Amino acid sequence: MFGRKKKQPEEEYRSPFPKCVRLDSKPHSFCGGCGHPEVLKAFGFAVDELGLQPRVVFGVDIGCSLLSWNFFNLNSVETHHGRTVPVMAGLRRANPEAIAVAYVGDGGAYAIGAGHLLNSAIRNDNILTVVVNNGLYAMTGGQESPTTHPGWKVTTAPYGADEYYIRAPEIIRNVNPTAFVARGITSRQPELRTLMREALQHVVDGRGFAFLEVLSQCPLNWKTMGDPKETFRRLEQDHAKLFPTGRY
Ligand SMILES: Cc1ncc(C[n+]2csc(CCOP(=O)(O)OP(=O)(O)O)c2C)c(N)n1
Ligand code: SF4
Predict the structure, then answer these.
(1) Domain count, the chain
(2) Which domain holds residue 228?
(3) 111: CATH
(4) CA 151, CA 163: separation in Å to the nearest integer?
(5) Does residue 191 lie in a domain region?
(6) Does residue 232 lie in a domain region?
(7) What is the pLDDT of residues 91-137, one digit of tens each?
(8) pLDDT tens for residues 28-58?
(9) Which of 62, 143, 154 has most ligand 1 atoms within 8 Å of CB, for mutation?
(10) Atom from ligand 1 closest to the CA of residue 81
């Protein structure tokens, strides 16, 4: 009919969502503009592309990562804060067919869970750990975490955070030379999807520990809500400067 758009053939239609995502679950609970959904989307597409849906067990930490507990049609497990890495390492030992994935925030991974993470990397556990680095404890209101930038004004450091911070991929590379180690960023989706796929493939091939840190934005606690220009300036210029992206 005149003016009506021609219907696309089935095979040409490309969904904006991964197939393994649950569209029926609910409106999600992330704040508008949050980076977590971008990381989850890249993860979901990588699971689809490698055909891993029946084998993946998705472990979520306490923190904003837990908001994804029923995001996917994947087997999942929710753990205590900072304990997702050892839980997934144990699960993989009990079930060698499982593709065990730990999805954790920087607070959970590098503060309360730092010992677990380091030991798992040293043991070369055959799991994938994805750490969402938004530079603070987001779920509890923006306290200083091991990735808070020196001088950032956060809830627990209103006059500016101290000069210490952790660059985890660099440390993990040093303790395990055979691990897959990389750092991506939410604002570069194609690159992030490639890194996700490579990290998952490393585990599928039984090559041991895979570690992917993703630089992510938290507009709520960065106090940039409603200002995407400033959010992404901070992410791409400040955050990516302190934490360089790439394969390690
Ligand atoms: C053992 C324990 N300590 C502290 C808390 C409180 N707590 C819940 S979420 C959270 C912060 C999570 O921050 P992060 O891991 O960086 O994830 P984000 O929310 O930034 O994604 C904390 C400290 C808890 N639930 N359990
Ligand atoms: S508090 Fe930050 S990390 Fe958590 S959902 Fe909101 S924007 Fe995302």
Answers:
(1) 1
(2) 51-247
(3) 3.40.50.970
(4) 7
(5) yes
(6) yes
(7) 999 999 999 999 999 999 999 999 999 999 999 999 999 999 999 99
(8) 899 999 999 999 999 999 999 999 999 999 9
(9) 62
(10) 26
